[in-house]
Design a protein that fits this description.
With about 260 residues, the chain is α/β, with parallel strands linked by helices. Helix content is about 50%, strand content about 15%. It has two domains: about 5-200, Alpha-Beta Complex (2-enoyl-CoA Hydratase, Chain A, domain 1), CATH 3.90.226; about 205-255. Strand 1 and strand 2 (about 15-20) form a beta hairpin. Helix 9 (about 205-215) packs antiparallel against helix 10. The protein is globular, with a radius of gyration of 19 Å. The relative contact order is 0.10.
Length: about 260
């Protein structure tokens, strides 16, 4: 396992945790941290033991966005490279066959919110707040926030969040459909682990195909072609040893009742 300064990688059974580790800066992301996050995601994606990955932050924040002190002094070339690395980071999460869960406890703002949006699921504690405040700096989200937010919630709510640059409570975003679950602060770590372990017990091949197929709905592929792809996929899965054994086990279990 690689050595990191601003993140930690923890492997627990079938779960992997990628932990942002700059609590004194509310886990704000500088260039070095972004490079480490990319390396950590790649490491987890390549680990065949890992079935489900969880991203979380140390301290009072998931991630409070980019490190503005460093952000402000970047040259145009450095800024462009930072944005390009950001695209790679988000794509590595979305294109991974594994489910990625954002475990948001505290602030998830700017780039932190964008990382959460790139994950397959968002679990949040009651005290958490999420938002895209770039408009307050006369900027816009540069890590896919304008596009992924619309995919999660629809254009009207997305415009409200983007135009106001506000910080929204986890429960409100749960009601909007952005956050999947909201857990009590005191039980958050245990609830996240229980939820992730439930996914880890599911078929790895099924989860990978479910992720791929649901994300096809966000592409320009015609509906009928997506339906055909779904049909081809289930036919292929039906012929696998894993599926045949699961079907036989289900039949045997019902016969014994």
């Amino acid at each position: 396992m690689s050595s990191y300064t601003h993140i930690e990688i923890l492997i627990e059974s079938d779960l992997a945790y990628l932990v942002f580790n700059r609590p004194g800066r509310l886990n704000a992301m500088n260039r070095k941290m972004m490079t480490e996050i990319i390396g950590g995601i790649e490491e987890i994606n390549l680990n065949e033991q890992v079935k489900v990955a969880v991203i979380k932050g140390k301290g009072r924040a998931f991630m409070a966005g980019a490190d503005i002190k460093e952000y402000a002094i970047q040259t145009p070339e450095e800024f462009k490279a930072f944005q390009e690395n950001g695209k790679k980071l988000y794509n590595l999460i979305e294109q991974s066959p594994k489910p990625w869960i954002a475990a948001v406890d505290g602030f998830a703002l700017g780039g932190g919110c964008e990382i959460a949006l790139s994950c397959d699921l968002i679990l949040a504690s009651e005290r958490s707040k999420l938002g895209l405040p770039e408009v307050h700096l006369s900027l816009i989200p540069g890590g896919g926030g304008t596009q992924r937010l619309i995919q999660k919630v629809g254009i009207n709510r997305a415009k409200e969040m983007l135009f106001t640059g506000g910080q929204y409570a986890a429960l409100e975003l749960y009601n909007w459909g952005i956050v999947n679950r909201v857990f009590e602060n005191e039980n958050f770590t245990e609830e996240v682990r229980a939820f992730a372990m439930k996914l880890a017990r599911r078929s790895t091949q099924s989860l990978a195909q479910l992720k791929r197929l649901t994300q096809l709905s966000l592409t320009n592929m015609p509906f009928e072609e997506r339906i055909d792809e779904e049909g081809r996929t289930v036919e292929q899965l039906f012929l696998t040893v894993e599926a045949q054994q699961a079907i036989e086990a289900f039949i045997s279990k019902n016969k014994s009742r």
